[in-house]
Amino acid sequence: MQVVVDLNRCQGYAQCVFLAPKVFELHGDEALMYLPEVPDDQREHVLRAATACPVRAVLVGEPAGAD
Ligand code: SF4
């Protein structure tokens, strides 16, 4: 699974960081770093983070051609 954060939308609320700290990390107040390739054992956490983000900035999907 892959994840993209729309950093133009992200307001640094850090819900994603609390829910999936192995994937999302905040540097300073607003600089969100993340792993674009989600490890399998982090999928559920990332899906929860996507749902929890107040501005819907966390977008998840499968790579094209994978199913
Ligand atoms: S929860 Fe959303 S707004 Fe908050 S840091 Fe994560 S991506 Fe940004």
The CATH class: Alpha Beta
* Major beta-sheet overview: 2 strands, antiparallel
Structural class: alpha+beta
**String of helices and strands:** EHEEHE
Roughly what is the average pLDDT, rounded to an integer? 93
CATH fold-level topology: Alpha-Beta Plaits
Bound molecules: iron/sulfur cluster
User: What share of residues is helical?
Assistant: 10-25%
- Supply Rg: 11 Å
What would the principal axes of the Cα set say about the shape? Answer: globular
CATH architecture tag = 2-Layer Sandwich
Order of strands in the sheet with the most strands? Answer: 1-4
Keywords: 3Fe-4S, Electron transport, Iron, Iron-sulfur, Metal-binding, Transport
Protein name: Ferredoxin
InterPro entries: Fe-S_cluster_ET
Cofactor: [3Fe-4S] cluster
Write structural notes for this entry:
This is Ferredoxin. InterPro entries: Fe-S_cluster_ET. Its cofactor is [3Fe-4S] cluster. It comes from Streptomyces luteireticuli. Keywords: 3Fe-4S, Electron transport, Iron, Iron-sulfur, Metal-binding, Transport. With 67 residues, the protein is α+β, with helices and mostly antiparallel strands. The chain has helices spanning 15-19, 43-52, and strands spanning 2-5, 24-27, 31-34, 58-61. Strand 2 (24-27) and strand 3 (31-34) form a beta hairpin. It starts with a strand and ends in a 6-residue tail after the last strand. The protein is 22% helix and 24% strand. It has a two-stranded antiparallel sheet. Strands 2-3 form a two-stranded antiparallel ribbon. It has two helices and four strands, in the order E-H-E-E-H-E. The model has no long low-confidence stretch (mean pLDDT 93). It has a single domain (2-61), classed as Alpha-Beta Plaits (2-Layer Sandwich). Iron/sulfur cluster (SF4) binds next to helix 1.
